[in-house]
Amino acid sequence: MCNTSRLLLSTYAENNAVHGVLIEKLMARPRAVIQIPLQLAAEIDQLAGRGHRSEFAIEVLDQEVKRRQLLKILENKEPLWKNEDHPELAQGAEAWVRQMRQEDEVRFQRIQQNRDRD
């Protein structure tokens, strides 16, 4: 990176309150060159606007990675929810919700009493 670029990034960082962090690391992205059919490129340009293919590709790839990660989790035979991780629900969800609502009501009454005193 040339000195002018470093100066511009440094000025950008100072103006945007990014102190103590190397901007080069924040902005570092590995480059990937992919070949796509002309028709697909035209459709992407139509959707994202000319000059915005990278942003479009990043958004789509990010969504697809998350989708596939979720599918992988859902394919796992072991249940994600374990009763021992949620002892507050030992008496059932209905009892827990009732308790939470009662606690909220007590808290609300206390707040109202404090307001009435003022």
Structural overview:
Among the domains are: 30 residues; 27 residues. It is mainly α. The longest helix has 25 residues. It has five helices and no strands.
Estimated share of beta-strand residues: under 5%
Secondary structural class: mainly alpha
Query: What is the string of helix and strand elements?
Result: HHHHH
Topology, number of strands:
0
Secondary structure tally, helices:
5
Radius of gyration: 27 Å
Distance between the termini: 62 Å
Average of pLDDT? 82
Contiguous runs where pLDDT drops below 50 for at least 5 residues: none
Bin the helical content.
55-70%
Query: How many strands, which pairing sense, and closed or not: the largest β-sheet?
Result: none
Large-scale geometry: elongated
